[in-house]
Specification:
- The complex is a heterodimer of chains A (318) and B (283).
- By secondary structure, chain A is mainly alpha-helical.
- Chain A contains 14 helices and 2 strands; from the N terminus they run H-H-E-E-H-H-H-H-H-H-H-H-H-H-H-H.
- Chain A has a two-stranded antiparallel ribbon with strand order 1-2.
- The longest helix of chain A is centred in the C-terminal third of the chain and has 35 residues.
- Chain A is globular, with a radius of gyration of 25 Å.
- Chain A starts with a helix and ends with a helix.
- Chain B is 73% helix and 0% strand.
- Chain B is globular, with a radius of gyration of 23 Å.
- The N terminus and C terminus of chain B are likely disordered.
- Classes of the chains: A mainly alpha (318), B mainly alpha (283).
- Chains A and B meet through helix 1, helix 2, helix 4, helix 5 and helix 6 of A and helix 1, helix 4, helix 5, helix 6 and helix 8 of B.
Chain lengths: 318, 283
């Protein structure tokens, strides 16, 4: 990616005569950047700085906790409190477990769908593509409400159907509710990821497959040795966004929280942050959780990127 | 693909088609349930077969939905359209301007600005919601439409995509020619550059539109006035009412709330395919 700007710069350097209007043109560039830049600084960079600052302070109340609130420097106490809180750590464990299972299942499914749709014998590709992509048009809140009706014993044709064949299904028990959420996320996002992978597949020149076919390679071998390595960048991209999405899990558990007691108010880290801010008005704690989440997101994305670069590098070399 | 001459059509892949069909059921059945359920009364939602019709009272449900709480639902839908429409339009224009400046002007700190924006693509939006709420409340903007609109007008992904696209498709020669003719930089942008960038901008707009439409954390945090809520938040509230949840309204309201997006997807699907490749794979 760094090559493109370089080329552009070289070309511009050769073609454009030394401009006499340099300063005014730079002013124009500033003008173009200004609307986005102002909003970006005010509502992106400043909030991050503010969260960092706030995470170092706590609200102290004099007397028995009814006195006026004062803000006092707390150092890293908010971080310590968050990291020492068993229910917060349980929430972290939950999203990690969720991600380890859900992300590979979803991306695997998206990859299989993309490969089947890209294959030469695929029937009705337009219909299938639309069918898989449809859930992406359904917002998380609505998707969760919808699936909740399919989970609740009173309204669910699934529960009654399974009951008819002698299986007592409880999709909202403490042991199953996390996977019921994973199902909602998978249902919503598989089609989107499939589309990204499919776009990468369709950008591959067909001659590549034809050459392999002439050499007698089977469809499986072509998929495994040619197609999958070629779409690896798309897989890495969807993987990173999925990892981020997992750590940020909020909408689905929040909606289920109002329906079942098996989803606590601090079920995921993001819910814990929300609860700290608006349940107990502890903004310092909420900010500390937000910062920890941002750090975890950054670290995990980075590790994921490195691992996948190494993995795909080896695949390509072999 | 479907236009290939039928003589060259390869053997249909029976196993593959079977797998595709079974999985299509998984993705379509819940949507089918929603369609069926929104024709039922609250009592028929419980007890009748969820995948088939019983009493058909879609019209009654829609009337009830429109009139409930003095037309609150209609307001929620209009609010959502306002937030998603205006927010995405603003985000797209600002991203196009910034992306174009980063692609076609050479100034000090250009790469630093771009890298900061690129890093921001990875910053998860819900993470910002709490500090944004606190800053907005200091600016007395909480519980106004600006609390949702302003943060929605930032699209780092849009800047990223616009820059890549502008670099590849806006020829320097055209810009130079327009400058020779004496056109100002902003006039060049609005009359020439925007038109060239439009395929990428449709993608940016669609992405941002869906993102805002789906957004839940930000309005939940910044809006307590029911009249300002987007439809997501309203449905969440109705669904969570402990004793007297209006089930038929939740279901019918859910269906109505997703129709605009589904229609938009059907109409605009070719844009999703073409430019996802440009945005996704080059990253």
């Amino acid at each position: 990616m760094s090559a493109a700007p370089q080329v552009a710069a070289d070309r511009a350097g050769r073609q454009a005569p030394p401009s006499r209007r340099g300063p005014s043109r730079n002013r124009a560039a500033l003008g173009f950047l200004l609307p986005f830049g102002l909003l970006f600084v005010a509502l992106f960079l400043l909030p991050i700085a503010y969260a960092l600052w706030q995470s170092l302070y706590r609200t102290a109340r004099s007397g028995l906790g009814f006195g006026p609130a004062r803000t006092v420097f707390a150092g890293l106490a908010n971080y310590g409190a968050a990291l020492g809180d068993g229910s917060f750590l349980a929430g972290v464990g939950r999203v990690l477990l969720f991600g380890v299972v859900q992300v590979p299942v979803m991306l695997g499914l998206a990859l299989v769908l993309a490969l089947l749709l890209d294959g030469r014998g695929a029937r009705f590709p337009r219909f299938f593509r639309l069918a898989y992509f449809l859930p992406y048009a359904i917002p998380g809140v609505v998707a969760t409400i919808l699936w909740a009706f399919l989970y609740l014993p009173g309204t669910s044709p699934l529960v009654s159907g399974l009951g008819n064949v002698g299986i007592r299904a409880d999709f909202l028990s403490s042991g199953t509710v996390l996977w019921s959420m994973a199902n909602i996320v998978t249902w919503t996002w598989t089609g989107y990821n499939m589309l990204v992978i499919l776009a990468a597949l369709q950008a591959v020149p067909r001659e590549l497959y034809e050459a392999a076919e002439l050499d007698g390679a089977s469809a499986w071998r072509i998929a495994w040795h040619i197609k999958i390595p070629l779409v690896a960048p798309a897989l890495v991209l969807t993987g990173i966004f999925s990892v981020i999405g997992t750590l940020q899990l909020f909408t689905e558990p929040m909606v289920l929280h109002s329906l079942t007691s098996t989803v606590s108010a601090d079920y995921t880290p993001n819910m814990a942050a929300y609860n700290a801010a608006f349940g107990t008005n502890d903004y310092g704690r909420a900010a500390a959780i937000a910062v920890l989440l941002a750090l975890a997101t950054g670290v995990l994305s980075f590790v994921f990127l490195r691992l996948s670069v190494r993995f795909t590098g080896e695949r390509a070399a072999s | 693909m479907s236009t290939a001459p039928s003589g060259r059509r390869p053997r249909p892949n029976v196993v593959g088609t079977a797998v595709l069909s079974v999985l299509a059921l998984y993705f379509l059945l819940p949507a089918w349930w929603l369609l069926v359920a929104s024709t039922k009364s609250s009592s028929d939602l419980f007890g009748s077969n969820g995948f088939w019709f019983s009493s058909f009272r879609l019209g009654d449900n829609l009337r009830e939905l429109a009139s409930a709480n003095d037309g609150l639902y209609v307001r929620w839908m209009l609010n959502t359209l306002l937030y998603a429409g205006v927010g995405a339009a603003g985000a797209t224009l600002f991203a196009a301007m910034a992306g174009y400046a980063l692609a076609k002007f050479r100034f000090r700190g250009r790469e630093a600005v771009f890298n900061t924006v690129l890093a921001a693509v990875l910053v998860p939006a819900p993470l910002l919601a709490l500090p944004v709420y606190l800053l907005l409340s200091k600016a007395h903007l909480v519980d106004t439409v600006w609390a949702v609109l302003l943060p929605s007008m930032i699209s780092p992904f849009g800047v990223f995509l616009s820059r890549i696209y502008a670099e590849a498709s806006v020829p320097d020669e055209i810009l130079e020619a327009a400058r020779m003719d004496g056109a100002g930089e902003f006039r060049i942008f609005f009359t020439v550059v925007l038109r060239i960038l439009s395929p990428a901008l449709v993608t940016v707009f669609l992405f941002q539109f869906v993102t805002i439409w789906n957004n839940f954390f930000l309005p939940l945090v910044t809006l307590s006035d029911q009249k300002l809520w987007p439809v997501n938040l309203g449905l969440y509230y109705w669904n969570g009412l402990k004793d007297h949840t209006p089930y038929n309204l939740v279901v019918t309201g859910s269906l109505v709330s997703v129709l605009p997006l589904v229609v938009a997807f059907l109409l605009l699907q070719r844009f999703w395919r073409a430019d996802l490749a440009a945005g996704g794979v080059k990253a």
